[in-house]
Give the backbone structure.
Amino acid sequence: MLRTHTCGELRKKHIGKHVTLCGWIDTRRDHGNLIFLDVRDRWGKTQLVFDSEVSRQLHRDAEKLRPEFVIRVGGVVGKRPAGTANPKLNTGEIEVRVNEMEVLNASETPPFEILDESNVSEEIRLKYRYLDLRRPSMLRRLEIRSQVVQVAREYFKEHDFIEVETPILTKSTPEGARDFLVPSRLSQGTFYALPQSPQLFKQMLMVSGVDRYFQLARCFRDEDLRADRQPEHTQIDVEMSFVTEDDVISVIEGLLVRVVKAVCGVSLKPPLQRLSYLDAVDRYGTDAPDIRFGLELVDVTSILERCELKIFRDVIASKGMIKGINVRGRDFSRQELDGLIVKAKELGAQGLAWLKVTTRGFESPIAKFLAESEQDELRRAFCSEAGDTIFLLGGEWRTASTVLGALRSHLAKDLKLVKTKDPALLWVVNFPLFEFSEAEKRLESLHHPFTAPQDADVGLLDKEPLRVRARAYDIILNGTEIGGGSIRIHREEVQKKVFGVLGISDQEAEEKFGFLLEALRYGAPPHGGIALGLDRLCANLLGVDTIRDVIAFPKTQKGTCLMTEAPSKVYPEQLKELFLQVKT
Ligand code: ASP
């Protein structure tokens, strides 16, 4: 080994020892005869002292050291002089008095300082990702991500799961996104698809009798990268045989207990809360609610049915509803209120009414249209007190709920309503199996086409497919969906029926999923599973804003890698071998 200790290791007990350290030059302070340099590695920083009285030559050499030079130093561990200890540093009580040094490599002046607080654009960070990752906070994130992976591996091993790798070069699997295609050289004109998930392979493994499978699976989706997405992400992918929803849920809860303990030091107490899809949308306006703060949506339709306000009455008459939220103890300025109205309209509402609750009743442009009794009932419905502000809007159930839900999230962020640091997890269950896609003008699977319908609803598949509930479940962390899964269809006739509802003809089903339908004929066991998004899980537990911060080499919003400059052009010969031509 080039070193005896790491830069984060030396303590008072090492005083007097001769040690050798390796690392990068961090900060430096010159005090005439003494040069103080911090040397840094993954584990921390250690103060080095170069004393001209010990060695002129070494002192001179130290003057030439620049930030990010890589050095190896030998010296004796000493106690820092009284009053100069640095309690913020693990190694803050000692220093190494250097008596030998070797420069292992020089460094150009880096484009930014290797500091946690350095204020540098993400573009530069991604181009020089190796320097960005050298920052202590970034190395810490990689470390925590690795810890999550290790906890998961240990956990699944204890629970008798087998880790199986499924192919990267495969056939298109429908998770609803566009495939990345890879042309085949050996069979002209054909393409592999990169897997959007190992969904069908893990189901095949259940037919094989693997019974309990997991994998840290890379998944590829060629989506527009709005929101916080990446073209490739990692899933903790799980599938189990002879299980119900509760079995999968409880295995995952056990895993999350360990992960949350390891990363946040918080002890979760399963079972976690469960909310039906309808309740989630109704109470929070989203199927991925953040339950760390209240501000729940309240349905006040029945109170306002006969009110004097025509806009409200019209909404109700056309089967819509009036819903609201009450912001406790918060007065809003006129400007703030106008801003919120604009926001609500942007989100798709026709308008937004506000009512300030005062000791003299409501203060609001619409107060005069509300009878005394209606005002009383509203106050009661929202449990409001003087100083609160109520917001109301009307519309069809889903629109009214989701717009108000988005407003709820916006207000929570603005008003900093999340007070706890503890992660809030919950399951959303009882999803519909299908939803109507306005864009495609047909039914689509809410999860994927292999999700089983609830037994009680199978009879509705033909007549009222939109009322069929799925045996699916999503796990939500702090208002973000971090995973989802389902019990699968394991009977061919049900699978064919679901394909039929989705408008997939027998011929298309055979072409795309023939191998699945065939496998179902050979004794497929009942099975189900889930996938957790590793990137999102880590980002959320660490409280970072983007999943790019927990991925070593992420892509930009345009799907490019600024470091390697991928994607890039290829040589004409390469294209020829693949029977491809690029038209520009
Ligand atoms: N394959 C699904 C996904 O990638 C997860 C699952 O159903 O297990 O989202």
